Amino acid sequence: MPMRNLQQPVETGFAKAARRLGSRADHYRILDPLLPLGNKIGTTHICFDAEAGFQMHRPRMWGNPMAYALCDARGLCIGDLFRQGKVFHFVSAMEACRPPLCVACSAQISVSGMRGAPRLLVDGCPASLVLAGKGEDRHSGMPGAVRAGSYMMHMPVLPGFCLMPYMQVTDDHAFRYLVESVELSAHGIRALLSLQQV
Q1: How far is it, in rounded angstroms, from Cα 119 to Cα 20?
Q2: What letter does residue 166 receive in the DSSP assignment?
């Protein structure tokens, strides 16, 4: 049987299973980077698991933001956001007859331009920030100075916005980061950030 003929019954099965195993979530599609939660397109049942088989054997590992989503995937797009209470996920990959791959978000971020052009470009967008190691030694000359933390950020693709090195990121705890390097893809934006300590 061709894959396209299998897709509809598989999606129907995913939707039925999500109604039994999942909980309700608000579903958003980002149209404006300055108002990422301004376009709610509905609610759905959804369940997240660390493995695509949804055996629910273990929780998602610390520091690993990736999770599979069991939901009604009809009409779903890469970059869509789900909110369950205070927890956000965004869709990063979709393939026929497979559950969508999502990123669990740990912060809501704002992005402004490079120094000298600090215009706000993104406001309150859910994103994942995971400590990736120690950054470069800035040679501050301060006794006892420690290296700034280096963070891996995942965020959804935003219409009309392109993240670039040296832009400034601020999270919802008012921590500030400098964008060091950026990877842009159809799945989302991945960037390496350094924590600004002063």
Answers
A1: 45
A2: T
